[in-house]
Amino acid sequence: MLVFSMACYDGDDDSDGKKAAVRFQNASDDIVINYGIKLGGAAYVGSLSVGQYTGYYSTSPGSYSVQLRDGSGNWVTDSMGSFVVEDGHDYTVVLDGNINSYMYYLILDN
Fold first, then answer.
1. pLDDT confidence tier of residue 12, bands split at 50, 70 and 90
2. Number of other CB atoms surrounding residue 98 within 10 Å
3. What domain range includes position 74?
4. Domains identified in the chain, total number
5. pLDDT tens track for 29-54
6. CA distances (Å), 99 to each of 16, 31, 56, 104, in order?
7. Is residue 6 part of a domain?
């Protein structure tokens, strides 16, 4: 199930008008993101269990790969491609599948 809501930004300076909002959703069958997930400058630090989603975090527009945070606090690239986020839009990065076969999707919320 995908959940949509209005964007609420994390307080980054948006004076240049070049920001996108990104949130993260765990729609997998059995995967827990233990330490955090990141796309560009939009980073959620914490655990994200099955069925949970985060608030929105702002990032500069660009092309980014999904990164996961390891137990030591390092960000490690976990996607084989990249997603493009454009300024003025809100997105949801969705983790789907199971521990043996999973994918990330980027959904344009608005």
1. very low
2. 10
3. 20-108
4. 1
5. 999 999 999 999 999 999 999 999 99
6. 40, 6, 25, 13
7. no
In angstroms, rounded to a whole number, what is the distance separating the alpha carbons of residues 78 and 69?
Answer: 10
Phi first, then psi, for residue 95 (nearest 5°) are -95, 125
Q: Does a structural domain hold residue 10?
A: no
Tell me if 88 is assigned to some domain: yes
Q: How far apart, in whole angstroms, are the C-alpha atoms of residue 104 and residue 79? A: 7
Residue 68 and residue 37 in contact, taking contact as beta carbons nearer than 8 Å: yes
CATH of the domain at 76: 2.60.40.2890
Query: Looking at residue 100, what DSSP letter applies?
Result: T
- Model pLDDT for residues 49-80, shown as the tens digit of each residue: 999 999 999 999 999 999 999 999 999 999 77
- Which residue in the block uniquely carries the two structure tokens 């959620």? 44
Q: How far apart are the first and last CA of the chain?
A: 18
Q: Are strands 62-64 and 83-85 parallel, antiparallel or unpaired?
A: antiparallel
Buried b (16+ CB within 10 A) or exposed e, 20-40: bbbbbbbbbeebebebbbbbb
Q: How far is CA 24 from the centre of its chain?
A: 4
